[in-house]
């Protein structure tokens, strides 16, 4: 049984077994939550990302997939990097966004992580509308068969928190 919890705040301040990063295919950092995780987590995360690029993901991590590294100096054992889709008004990419949550939890299960903190993937630079992103995130996690005991959505601002809270109440 997985419990879903909501927190408003900075995901880099969370304590969890795994913290999920809304990365890009390069795995080499960026802005938003990605920049914050690398800044606070320190260089060990980027070092492992570079190794992954040099070995398993020469062409980059495909959208919708997930891969784990050390969490460096974060209060977590692992960072799980996933690549959300850029929002499109002409193409339905919902399944790719759902895949980020599914694949991140699959990786978490492989690692034995019991608590996993997620940001609202794709809702920043990648422009996914918050209400729809919240619906996809909550529905996907609810439908998962996983040994993860707590999925914590860490929402940066009140608007994001309210969007996720509304979705959570929907099916409660
Ligand atoms: N803690 C929690 N949530 C955060 C934090 C934080 N410290 N910082 C931002 N958010 P974004 P994306 C929220 O842009 O849309 C990067 O450059 C933010 O308010 O970080 O998936 C990557 O390298 C928003 O709701 O990720 C990629 O190139 C959510 O996190 C690209 O951005 C996601 O915003 C990925 O874009």
Automatic annotation (TrEMBL):
Residues 1-172 form the Macro domain. This is O-acetyl-ADP-ribose deacetylase.
């Amino acid at each position: 049984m997985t419990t879903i919890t909501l927190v408003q705040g900075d995901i880099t301040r969370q304590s969890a077994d795994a913290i999920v990063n809304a990365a890009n295919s390069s795995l080499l950092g960026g802005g938003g939550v990605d920049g914050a995780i690398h800044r606070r987590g320190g260089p060990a995360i980027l070092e492992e990302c570079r190794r992954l690029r040099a070995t398993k993901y020469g062409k980059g991590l495909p959208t919708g997939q997930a891969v784990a590294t050390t969490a460096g100096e974060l209060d977590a054992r692992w960072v799980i990097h996933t690549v959300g889709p850029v929002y499109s008004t002409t193409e339905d990419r919902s399944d790719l966004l759902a895949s980020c949550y599914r694949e991140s939890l699959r990786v978490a299960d492989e690692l034995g992580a019991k608590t996993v903190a997620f940001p609202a993937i794709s809702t920043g630079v990648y422009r996914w509308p918050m209400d729809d992103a919240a619906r996809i995130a909550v529905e996907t996690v609810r439908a998962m068969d996983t040994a993860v005991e707590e999925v914590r959505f860490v929402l940066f601002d009140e608007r994001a928190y309210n969007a996720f809270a509304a979705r959570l109440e929907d099916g409660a």
